[in-house]
Amino acid sequence: WKDTKVKTFSSQLKISHVHEELEALDKAVNDFIEQNDIGKVISVSDTAVYDGVAVRLICVVAYE
User: Could you give the CA distance from residue 30 to residue 51 in angstroms, rounded to a whole number?
Assistant: First the structure.
């Protein structure tokens, strides 16, 4: 596990633009993987968080 790295992405979801926000977050994750020539993705995990003001989607990618 010593070569394992983690990258976190976050996006605020706007009620009228959820689909676009999810697509943008997916694109950011995929672009990161491609641009950094990541050969092995160990895990991708999403969670929604409500901070009292807005809903945010957090995506965590573990990779080597």
Answer: 26
DSSP H helical ranges for 11-59: 18-35
Burial per residue of 11-38, b for 16 or more beta-carbon CB atoms within 10 angstroms, e otherwise: bebeeeeeeebeeebeeebeeebeeeee
Average pLDDT of span 20-25: 90
Rg (the chain; Cα; Å): 13
Quick check: 58 and 7 in contact, CB under 8 A? no
Which two structure tokens, joined as six digits, stand for 20?
Answer: 């676009």
Nearest in space to 25 (alpha carbons), one of 45, 9, 37? 9
Hey, what amino acid is at 42? I
pLDDT single digits (tens) 5-15: 999 999 888 87
